[in-house]
Amino acid sequence: MNHVIHRAEVAPQGSTDISVHPRMCPICEAYCGLLVEADSRTKKLVGIRGDHEDPFSKGFICAKGYSWTELHDDPNLIKTPLIKRDGKFVAATWEEAFDLIGERLNAICKKHGPDAVGFYFGNPIAHKVGLLYYTPPLLEILGSRNIYSASTVDTTPKFLSSGLMFGDCTAVPVPDVDRTDYFVIQGGNPVVSNGSLMTAPGMPKRIKAIRERGGKVIVIDPRFTETAEIADQHISIRPGTDPYFLLAIINVLFAENLVRLRHLDGKVRGIETVRALAAEYPPERVVAACTVPAEVIRQLAREFAKSDSAAWYGRFGTCTQSFGTVSSWLQDVINVLTGNVDRAGGMMFPVGIIPNVVFNDIFVGDVPPVNRWQTRVSGLPEFAGTFPNGALIEEIMTPGEGQIRAFITMAGNPVLSNPNSQGLSEAFENLDFMVSLDIYLNETTRHADVILPSPPHAMHSDFPAYFVHLMVRNVPKWSAPIFPLEENQRHDWQALSEIAARLAGITVEDFEEKQLQAMLKRFIADGKHPLAQSIDPLTARTALGEEPGPDRIYDLLIRTGRNGDAFGLDPDGLNLEKIKQYPHGLDLGPMIPRVDEALKTPDRKIDVAPAYIVADMDRLRAALPDYEQPNSMVMIGRRDPRTNNSWMHNLNVLVKGKNRCTALIHPDDAARLKLSAGALARVSTHIGAIELPVTITDTILPGVISIPHGWGHDKEGVELDIARLHPGANFNQIVDQRLMDVPSGNAILSGVPVTVEAVAAS
Ligand code: SF4
C-alpha cells in the first residue's frame, strides 16, 4: 500500500499542473517523510505517499498521513480573522483584529497586571515552526505567570522526572529502538500512536525488527493493545498501580544483586535511598493491587537486568495516573540501575544538529525547575514556567488580584482535551476578552472575541525543530512551502510578531531584530560548535540576512550547533543552504552517548532519588489498600489509529465507517451490567455522565472501561461539519480537573473511578 499514491477524491483528472514535494507529515511525532502531489492551479493537495528516499521513515505512512489532502482544503478552515460582534463572528481585516487585541490586552494588563492574561498552547505548536519559535518571545513580553499547555494533560510527569533526575526538563531519555535487545513498553501503544516522546517513524516495523534480531518486546497495559499483538509478552496490570509494580521490579534488582551501573558508575547518586524505598515492595506485596503474579515480576526484572541492552519506556498510561511522576521516575531508575541509560540499545539522549530551545528549563544553581512559584488559588506548583491546567477554571472564576480576565489559546482545544469540559467552557465565557489562533471554529475558539486563522501546513516551510530532542536518529531536514500564502493570509509567526510588538509598544521590525540579536548572543555563547564563541556577531548577523521568520532562526541554530559551519569558521560544517540539498533528509546516524553533556544537575550526576519526587512516597504507601480492594470500575483512555487530536474528527477520511467512539468493556462486566454489544452505557462520576455504545472484548481487564479522548462535538456555535455528524461522547466531561498527580499537577485520566450502567432502551 505504501507504494501507491493515495489520490484525494478532489484530484483533477489529467491536470498538467501537478508537482511532487518532499515534506514532513505535520500530524504526529513520527515526522514521516511524505511525497505530496500538489496542483499549482487549484492550490489543492491531490495525492500523498510515503517517501521511500527518506532515510528515517523509509516510505512509512499511516492512515492519518493520507488525510493531509483533506485537511488542506477543509471548507471549515477559517480563512480570515474573525471578530465577535453582538454574539456572532464576522470577518475582519488583520489590522482590525491586531488593533483590537493590542488595545484590549494592553488595557487589561495595565489595569490588573500581566498575570490577568492567561495563555494556553496545544501540542500542534510542535508542528508549526512559526508558533514554536515565536511563542517564547511573545510570552516574555507578556510577562504573565498564567501559562498553560497541553503538557499537563499527558506528559508533564516525564518532563518533570527527567528534569529532576538529569537536570534538564527536555533531557528525556529515548529508547534506542533500532539497537535494543529488550524493549519494555509500559502504558504506551506505539503501533497506534506511532510513538510519543520518541520520534521513530514506522514503529510497527521497528518493533518487529527487535524480535527478528532475537530481542524481546514486553507490553505492560490493562488492555491487550495493538502493540501487545506484535510483542512477545503482554502483562496485564490494573490501571494506576504501575508505581507499585515498578518498585517491585527495583526490589528484585537489589534483592538478587542485579544492579550494575556499568559505565554510569560514579555518575549516580541516591541509590541507597532507592534501595530503602523499594525494600518495602517485594513482588508478593504488590500482587493484589497490580494483579500481576510475583513470578512474572521477578522474571521480567531478571531478563531486563541480564540483557546486553534494554530500554524501559513509559508513556501516556503511566503519566496520566494518580502517581504519574513517581511512575515516570521509577521507569528511568530501572534504566539507570541496569546501566541502560546513555548506552546503545538502552535509553539515550538524542543529539540533533540544533538544540531544542523551547521550554528547556534547567537547574539554576541548586534550584530545580519546579515549584519556584505557585498558582494563586490553590498553590499548585509551576513546572518549566507553566501551571497545571487543572488550575485554569479556578484561576479564571475566583475573583481577586491576579485573576485571569483575558486569555489567549493557540493551536489547542482545551475544552475538549482537558478535564471538566463544561467547567472550562463556562470559565471561558466568564472572561473579559479572549483571543484564539487556530484553524477551526471549535469547542474552545467559539468562546473567543477574536480568532486569528493559522494558514495550512502546506503554506509554510517545515523542519523538525521540537522533535529533534526525541529522534532516535539524527536526521535533519528542511521542507519548502508547497504554496505561497494567499493575499489575505498571514504566517503564524507574523501574527505572533504583530501581537508581541503591540504589547511591547515597538515596531514589528524592532521586535524581530531584538529577538534575533538575543538568539545570536545566546548561541554564540552557548552553541555546541567548538568554535561558536569565536563567531563574529556582525559577520553572523549579516549572513542571516533580512528575511524574517523561523527559517532564519533554524539557520542560526544549525550554524552554531555541533555540526554547523560556525558562520564560515568551519567550512565543512552545515548551514541551512546545505540542508536544503537533502530534501528527503540527511542521515547523520543513530543517537550517541552524551550523558556528561546532557546532565544539568548541580553536581552533574544522575539523581535517582530526587527529594521532590521522593516526598510523594507517603501518599503512594497510603493509597495501596485502595488499589488492593477497588470498589468501582475504573476508566482509562484509548488512542485510535485514525485519530490524534480532536480536530482530526473533522476529516471524513478518518471518521467514516465504524463508530470509533465506543467503550471497551470485558465480557464479565458486560454480563454483570446487562450490556450487550452496541448497547448504550451510561458512564458517570461525581461531576457528570456520558452515554456511548459498548464494544465487548476480552482484550481488556475486568473492572476497566476504555473510552477514547477528544470526542464530544455536539456544542452550539462550532463549525466542524464532519465532526458534528460523528459527535461521540466526551471523556473529559466526567473527569474532575481538581484531581491531579501531586508533584506535576498532571491530569488523572487513567484509573478514574466511574459508575457504569446500562441505559434502558426507550
Ligand atoms: S505516523 Fe504520524 S507522521 Fe507518520 S504518516 Fe502517520 S500521522 Fe503522519
Largest sheet: 7 strands, mixed
Shape field: globular
Number of helices: 29
* CA radius of gyration: 25 Å
The main sheet orders its strands as 6-5-20-19-18-7-8
Given as residue ranges, the uncertain stretches (5+ residues, pLDDT < 50) are 1-12
CATH architectural name of one domain: 3-Layer(aba) Sandwich
The secondary-structure class comes to alpha/beta
**Beta-strand percentage?**
15-25%
Q: Given this structure, which CATH class of one domain is correct? A: Alpha Beta
Helix content: 25-40%
Bound molecules: iron/sulfur cluster
The overall average pLDDT, rounded, is 95
The overall strand count is 27
N-C termini distance: 45 Å
Would you tell me which CATH topology of one domain applies? Dimethylsulfoxide Reductase, domain 2
Question: Going by CATH, what is the homologous superfamily of one domain?
Answer: Dimethylsulfoxide Reductase, domain 2
Notes on the protein architecture:
By secondary structure, this protein is of the alpha/beta class. Helix content is 32%, strand content 16%. The strands form seven sheets. It has a seven-stranded mixed beta sheet. A six-stranded mixed beta barrel has the order 22-26-23-25-24-27. A four-stranded antiparallel beta sheet has the order 1-4-3-2. Helix 10 runs parallel beside helix 15. The relative contact order is 0.15. Bound molecules: iron/sulfur cluster.
